[in-house]
Structure prediction request, 369 residues.
Amino acid sequence: MADTFLDSTELVLNMGPQHPSTHGVLRVILKLDGERVLGTECVIGYLHRGVEKIAENRTWQMFAPYVDRMDYVAAVSNGLGYCLAVEKLLGVEAPPRAQAVRVILTELNRIASHLLWLGTHALDIGAITPLFYCMREREWILNIYEKYCGARLTTHAFRIGGLQYETYEGFEKDCLEFCDLFEKRIDEYEELLTGNRIWKQRLTGVGVLTADDCKEYGVTGPMLRAAGVKWDIRKAQPYSGYEKYDFEIPTRANGDTYDRYMVRMQEMRQSARIVRQAVGAIPPGPIMAKVGKVIKPPAGEAYVSIEAPKGELGYYVVSDGSTQPYRVRIRPPSFVNLQALDKMCRGALVADVVAIIGTTDIVLGEVDR
Prediction:
C-alpha cells in the first residue's frame, strides 16, 4: 500500500499545531518524498480572536490595548501604528517630545523582538547558549518598559495624540546604559554564530526568496531586505520624526536564511544607534496633543503603515463620525510573509523547514488576529 499511496511514494505529514518549532499554533501540512519536501500548506486560525470585529464595538481609545495582543512580542510597534492611523483621521500630530520617546520605545521594541527571534531560532537549530544570552539582554528592555508603564510584554505605552505617561527619572540614563551594554553583547552573539560552520551549513542556501518572489508575495521587512531590496518605511515614508535620525538600511544579496539572520543582526545595531540619537534629542514640552477626552474623528478613512520588526504593519481605519470605529482592517506582516513559506520550502529537507519557519519570524497572534 505504501507504494501506491496518493499514486506515488509520497507521504503527507502534519507539523504542528502542537509543535515547538512552529512558533505558535501553526499547522503545516507537509507533502514529502522521503525527507524531501514537495509542497506545504499552512493551516491557521487556531488563535483567532476577531480583533478587527471587536474594534467596531469599542471606542477609539478602548480598542488601543487590543492591538498590543496581536504581535505580543512587538506590542509597542502595534500601538504606534494604530495611534498614527487615528491621529491621521483626527488631523493631529503628537508633540515633538512624544515623538522622540515613541521612537526610543519602538526601537527598543525592535531589538527585543529580534532578540526573542534570534534566541528561539538558534534553539530550533540546536544552539542553546544564544537563547540565554538573548533573554539576558531582552530583560533590560523589559525592565525599562516596566519602569515606564508597568507592563513588560503587552506594553501599552502610547495614547492617541501622544504618550500615556511622562518619562520616569533616569529614563535617558537607562536607555544609554542599555545601548552601551548591548553593542558589546551583540558581538558575542556573532562570535558564537556568524562564522560557525555548522550554523552556516544549516542556513546558507536554505529557503531562498528572490527580490521578485518577495514583491510577488508582498513580503516586507528583513526578509525583503535580505533579498537585496532597500525598502524601509522609516526611510521611504518617514513618521514620528524618523527623517531626523541618521541610520542605515541593512541589505544582503542572496535572500536565504543566513542573509535574513545577518540583516536582523545589523538591524539591532542600527536600532541602538537610533535610540542613542533620540535620547539626545528629547525636547522639553507637552507629551499630548490637543485631543478631546471623547475621541470622535470626522467621517472618513485613513491608512498608515509603519516598519514593524517583522515588516510593514498597516492600519486602515474608517470613521462614520461616531465615538466608535466603523471599520478597522489590519495588514499584519507575519500573515503576509507566511504566504511565502511554501515557495521557500519546496525542494528542502524536513529539517530545513524548521530553519525556514524560524527565519520567517512569525507570531501567530498576529497571523490569526
